[in-house]
């Protein structure tokens, strides 16, 4: 097993979610006892993330979740996470978990849905189950297809043993079981108050065009804000990420049926 963690992050192409990227990278590296090699998975005019069909998911990167095995030539291991994560635990603990099948994920919902927002892959075992890059690129909805594929093959799926690496809107630094917070509901993601203001100043818009609310957990928002300041002080500035693919992405305008906060930010 490599002593360098290969971390693949699904994100937007032109810095729309810069603040989330900065906090994810900073928190992951601060907590990790092993070096981390990050691949930002962005729609692009050329390269491995060019030419994908991006209209099927809520985000412009949903389909990229299944590409880490192919990106690693179906060798070794890889971790995937959405961009809207804050890490609290040592990623080396997840990296070293046993992978009896193909993937390690959060335990499924009562309906049996496989939660793949953070996933550890055994890339060699994925061969024959997950397509190569050309195959994924041709699929209209790889996320939907593989979510169903692995739901129907539970022997290929195991679940986090070292803690909760996908605590959906869960945040309690005193709870040692929570290794990563996934602030998943787009309408109140904690980076949006920063991103929307920055994008407005740049004369641009975010790919999400629905209403934005305060996150119901003020402690999580304060924690994120502090980490963002620390990340920027450490050199993870907007300019340091070298954005600018120029790829146009579909904007998602949807509203959840219920939300916990009523304060509208934008």
Task: Describe this protein's structure.
The mean pLDDT is 91. The chain has a six-stranded mixed sheet with strand order 2-1-3-6-5-7, with helices on both faces. A three-stranded mixed sheet has the order 4-9-8. The chain has helices spanning 18-31, 68-71, 91-95, 123-126, 133-138, 142-151, 192-201, 218-233, and strands spanning 5-10, 36-41, 77-82, 85-87, 103-106, 115-122, 157-159, 167-168, 180-182. β5 and β6 form a beta hairpin. The protein is of the alpha/beta class. It is built from eight helices and nine strands.
Summarize the structure.
The mean pLDDT is 91.
Overview features:
26% helix; alpha/beta; 15% strand; 266 residues; three-stranded mixed beta sheet; Spore Coat Polysaccharide Biosynthesis Protein SpsA, Chain A; six-stranded mixed beta sheet
Detail the topology: elements first, then pairings.
Blueprint: E1 5-10, H1 18-31, E2 36-41, H2 68-71, E3 77-82, E4 85-87, H3 91-95, E5 103-106, E6 115-122, H4 123-126, H5 133-138, H6 142-151, E7 157-159, E8 167-168, E9 180-182, H7 192-201, H8 218-233
Parallel strand pairs: 1-2, 1-3, 5-7, 8-9
Antiparallel strand pairs: 3-6, 4-9, 5-6
């Amino acid at each position: 097993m490599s002593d360098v963690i290969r971390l693949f992050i699904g994100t937007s192409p032109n810095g729309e979610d810069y603040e989330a990227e900065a906090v994810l990278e900073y928190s992951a590296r601060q907590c990790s006892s092993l070096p981390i090699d990050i691949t930002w998975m962005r729609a692009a005019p050329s390269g491995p993330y060019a030419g994908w069909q991006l209209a099927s998911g809520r985000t412009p990167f949903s389909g990229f979740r299944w590409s880490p095995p192919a990106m690693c030539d179906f060798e070794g291991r890889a971790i995937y996470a959405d961009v809207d994560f804050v890490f609290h635990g040592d990623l080396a603990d997840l990296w070293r978990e046993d992978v009896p099948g193909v993937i390690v994920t959060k335990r499924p919902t009562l309906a049996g849905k496989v939660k793949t927002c953070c996933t550890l892959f055994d890339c060699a075992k994925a061969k024959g189950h997950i397509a190569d890059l050309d195959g994924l690129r041709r699929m209209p909805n790889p996320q939907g297809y593989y979510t169903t594929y692995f739901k129907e093959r539970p022997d290929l799926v195991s679940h986090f043993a070292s803690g909760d690496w996908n605590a959906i809107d869960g945040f309690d630094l005193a709870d040692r079981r929570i290794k990563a917070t996934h602030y998943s509901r787009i309408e109140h993601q904690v980076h949006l108050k920063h991103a929307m203001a920055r994008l407005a100043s740049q004369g641009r818009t975010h790919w999400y065009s629905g209403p934005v609310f305060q996150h119901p957990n003020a402690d999580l928002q304060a924690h994120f804000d502090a980490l963002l300041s620390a990340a920027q002080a450490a050199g993870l500035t907007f300019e340091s990420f070298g954005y600018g693919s120029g790829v146009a992405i579909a904007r998602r305008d949807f509203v959840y049926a219920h939300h916990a906060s009523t304060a509208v930010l934008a």
